Amino acid sequence: MDNLLLLYQAPTILLQLVVDGLLVGAVFALAAYGMALVWGVMNIINVSQGEYVILGGYISYFLFRQFGLHPLLGLPIAGLALFLLGLLLYRVVIHRIVGRDMFISLLATFGISILLQQLMNELFGPDVVSVDAGMPTWYFLGNAVTVPTAKLLAFGVVLAIAALLVAGLRYSRLGQAIRATAQNARAARVLGVDTDRVYAATYALNAALCGMAGSLVVMIWVIHPFIGLTYTVRSFMIVIVAGLGNLPGVFATGLGLGALEQIAGFVLGAEFQSAFVFSLLVVILIVRNAWLRRRREYLS
């Protein structure tokens, strides 16, 4: 309660938390874009979403440590590497569960997440790592509010990727095929759309988005092999609130979640920040279920 009172007495602290949350929330939204795509097009809830984010972060970390490549320059490489990994996993595992019961997809992608966790642990070790972006910090309101350039750049990169994604889905042949398959896969096949190719591209695109999100995460935060679950839960929560196919809603929800997390971390303590995320997910599921029950209609 003392921290809550402090927020009231010093509004600049609240402003700082909200600014930090909005900048970090944009990165959450980038990972959630991919989950919304895979869920909407393939009807698969990808539990390994967070592990793709962390793997993208480790690729940028490796490039920085070995070759001195800045994470922003490593971002397209991480995206390409995860795109190829997504294609491989689709051909080996995912194509076998498309059209099957959603519970099977949960089990299959959960297995992938465990596999990736252990591989990252073996390759990079269990230590927490980060990359110093070497960028200055901006100060406002008499140094009461700070905005790191790295977070500001990450926010801009997410906006650029989101704009490219929307334009690609709207104007490219592949984007139109993805939208057609999401609306009705059978009708799309009748009209000549190769839905298997669309599914492969969608899953690989999801992995690439996560990989690029990971490059931003390692630049503004920390990563370790077993922290991916929180990104999966955040992505799931954002998609549940925003709805499938609502990319602007995904972005806005990501920003809101980031701000709420920062405020909760300050009020409750950093050790309860992850607990807040999981608790908020439970509350959202209960409220959404009650709302859907009220909207349910029966044929007489």
UniProtKB/TrEMBL annotation:
Mode of membrane association: Multi-pass membrane protein
Keywords linked to the UniProt accession: Amino-acid transport, Cell membrane, Membrane, Transmembrane, Transmembrane helix, Transport
Cited PANTHER family: AMINO ACID ABC TRANSPORTER PERMEASE PROTEIN, BRANCHED-CHAIN AMINO ACID TRANSPORT SYSTEM PERMEASE PROTEIN LIVH
Source organism per UniProt: Acidihalobacter prosperus
Transmembrane residue ranges: 13-38, 73-90, 102-120, 140-169, 203-224, 236-260, 272-291
Homology family: Belongs to the binding-protein-dependent transport system permease family. LivHM subfamily.
GO CC annotations on file: plasma membrane
GO terms of biological process kind: amino acid transport
Subcellular localization: Cell inner membrane
Single annotated GO MF: transmembrane transporter activity
Pfam family, one: BPD_transp_2
Domain of life, source organism: Bacteria
Protein name: Branched-chain amino acid ABC transporter permease
Record keyword Transmembrane helix present: yes
